[in-house]
Amino acid sequence: MTLEIIVGLVVLAAVVLAAATVVRRRRRLPAVRALEDAAAAGEVADRVVGRLADRAAGSTERSTVSLRDRLSKARTALTGSLGSALERTSISIEAWTEVTEALIRADVGLGASSEIVDAARSRIEAAGHDPADAKTALQAELRERLGGFDRSLARRSGGEGPSVWLFVGVNGTGKTTTIGKLAKREVDVGSRVVLAAGDTFRAAASDQLAMWAERSSTHIVRGAAGADPASVVYDAVESAAARGADLVLADTAGRFHTEQNLMAELQKVRRVADRGSGVVTETLLVLDATTGQNGLAQARQFTEAVDVTGVVLTKLDGSAKGGIVVAVQAELGVPVKLIGVGEGIADLVPFDTSEFVEALFA
Ligand SMILES: Nc1nc2c(ncn2[C@@H]2O[C@H](COP(=O)(O)OP(=O)(O)OP(=O)(O)O)[C@@H](O)[C@H]2O)c(=O)[nH]1
Ligand SMILES: [Mg+2]
């Protein structure tokens, strides 16, 4: 009985409260009510627009600052050591020596480091010895050295048949991953792409490329495990021609530059890829930037064997020191065309000198 009374009272109280709210709301002037409603709706809209704007800002920020962020280790390696030398009030011989050492430690290489410092010194001396200009002079020197290369990826004009971009390099440098990322970029700009699984050495290699083919929505041509890589690439080129595709990205097995027979095999792949309906317009050497100066010895051998037209420098997001970019171009005379800054499908960017130098010193 007591319980029924309590429940009854609670229900009554709720009904009275609801009625009072409705009355209070009705009594308010319609204009005030409209304003309140508009304010509530406006607040929601503001919140949605704000959130969208944040998201948009976040995404542009990500794409514009990503290079700077991804190069953070490379940057620390370079500017960390340069910092103390460049912050002096007067630039002495000792300070210049420190700058040279910092560049060498950042993988720029002995010869190139000394040349860069000599040139930067001349610039500063000509400009009146202001140490504050040292950093600017170094940046200008780096920009000048890195500039002047054609970094575009060559291809035949439309209707001429497929262009072949061949990827070569030692084991694990990022060839297959780079092909996957590049396939996506090319598909996004309207190219019709076929992937050639020229790494027949390991069965898993063509599965890995097939995964990238799926992710980039491209067609893949693969052979049996142990098949002749040159014939797989040939078939891929013919298949591309038959389906009206304009670009073949050809994967090859990783190999050490010292393995004569494997280097000869690569030369055969290069020759055969040119023999049918396609033309090899790029032979891209994929170099792991974290291997630093060691990578250069490998690079030289590949350049001699297959006439490398460009370098893809991968793993610059890792512990690599950015100076390797300067060394690659100075020593090989071959431009760095693309850089890998992560494992994701969007983590491949065209190399841009000014952006790179700015990101390194930022
Ligand atoms: N952090 C980082 N990792 C990368 C980058 N590029 C490739 N990798 C990673 O490096 C590893 C080797 O990449 P693969 O593409 O298989 O290298 P590969 O040259 O095809 O190797 P082989 O076929 O064995 O010669 C994988 O774990 C990739 O995710 C990059 O730019 N940054
Ligand atoms: Mg591979």
Would you write up a description of this structure?
This protein is of the alpha/beta class. 59% of the residues lie in helices and 12% in strands. It has 13 helices and eight strands. The chain has helices spanning 2-27, 30-70, 72-86, 93-105, 110-126, 134-146, 175-188, 203-216, 229-242, 260-273, 292-306, 324-332, 353-361; strands at 163-168, 193-197, 219-222, 247-250, 279-288, 310-314, 336-340, 348-350. Strands 3-2-4-1-5-6-7-8 form an eight-stranded mixed sheet, with helices on both faces. Helix 9 (229-242) packs parallel to helix 10. Mean pLDDT is 80; it is low at 15-65. Magnesium ion binds at residues 175-176, 199, 205, 251.
Summarize the structure.
Helices cover 59% and strands 12% of the residues. The protein has 362 residues and is of the alpha/beta class. 39% of the residues are buried.
Set out the fold topology.
Blueprint: H1 2-27, H2 30-70, H3 72-86, H4 93-105, H5 110-126, H6 134-146, E1 163-168, H7 175-188, E2 193-197, H8 203-216, E3 219-222, H9 229-242, E4 247-250, H10 260-273, E5 279-288, H11 292-306, E6 310-314, H12 324-332, E7 336-340, E8 348-350, H13 353-361
Parallel strand pairs: 1-4, 1-5, 2-3, 2-4, 5-6, 6-7
Antiparallel strand pairs: 7-8
Helix pairs in contact: 3-4, 4-5, 5-6, 6-13, 7-8, 9-10, 11-12
